């Protein structure tokens, strides 16, 4: 009877790591890419992780960024965003999955999780990187600072700390991934929702230049940033709620649980705060108060303006959306079917100065107002800004649409936000069941094909459609398996 092989051990510049074997895959969990962001390092740029003696155990999922989850009626969200806050200081970490063999020079894919910049972690089961390692990719998934610690421009504190964390993780990948069999010159970053927004921002960031060759942007784009002066209104609001000075020392003195209480309160739609920009638009449409800012060394310009000047042209981009993104927000809650015309206008007016015209363009008056609002927000928040990113990106750009409709919520959830992730990772079982995002029997064939599309793009940029440009407007529809011309959307006149 043969003995089991010993656990895998990989050397890094900080010390040796001991992982574990899972089928034909090796997994290294919670590897520190930066020092714990506590004490003097809490509101500071990420610093290198300290070295260790001996072999570090890398088999436990470890701490996550402080956060508080909110349940969604009728939907199990844990597979999508993780189980919430696992306490501990050492959470600027990443996981690595690699094939259980001695291959080298493999393509590398680095995943950035979503969660509106306030929740989520590398450990959500839907994004298990073992499936990519199984298929010949070295896959990495990362944690980064969230909420107040990661995306609040507190006076005296460096801005965009969450983005700086992601850059630090990518620098770790460039320096260390060869020891895991990966090719540091063939790195693809990919992410969904807020993770995709972060990636879109880093495509144009001078701090991230040269750290990745390709980017896959799932339900994200570069339009969800604010200027520092606008974002400082959030600092002022939170400081008043907490009864502290709007400063580093003020926020650092507040217990984490109390900060999370304040994040929850300021995130309520009933909380009064004006985060509209100079043009009267609120670029995040109330989905999150916490987003990256532009006007610093991370994002000197708004990302769309940076694209126009040629930033990111050396990065191959695959960007896309789901056909019915906002269903995730408005179907489980019942809002889509209950909200009337006047309230629809009121909701949209907070973010879009021409709210009546938008609703009319989406059929309000001829169809239920809530359905018009949902479709309008799908295009305003996700689909059209993604096309605008594709239009302005001067490098090679592919655009996809994920149109498979989930049968959850009596068939009404449809091609909602986050539906594509389990297909991308080939992890359908994690979100299947009575309260699963994908219902009872999602199609494995579509998952196998979607997963392969992502791998092929990461390997060498292959994609089964012509690049997107303003004239041909070729969008590859993943379920249909074909590309077609996509006309500009009704939302086009209402956004930059």
TrEMBL record:
Keywords annotated in UniProt: Hydrolase
Family to which the UniProt record says this protein belongs: Belongs to the type-B carboxylesterase/lipase family.
Keyword Hydrolase: yes
UniProt protein name: Carboxylic ester hydrolase
Gene3D superfamilies: alpha/beta hydrolase
Chain ranges of the Carboxylesterase type B domain: 7-466
Family matches, as PROSITE patterns: CARBOXYLESTERASE_B_1
GO molecular function, one term: acetylcholinesterase activity
EC number: 3.1.1.-
Keyword Ribonucleoprotein carried by entry: no
Organism in which the protein naturally occurs: Sphingomonas rubra
GO biological process, one term: acetylcholine catabolic process
InterPro entries the UniProt entry points to: AB_hydrolase_fold, AChE-related_enzymes, CarbesteraseB, Carboxylesterase_B_AS
One Pfam family hit: COesterase
GO CC, one annotated term: plasma membrane
Annotated region described as Disordered, given as residue ranges: 44-73
Highest taxon, organism lineage: Bacteria
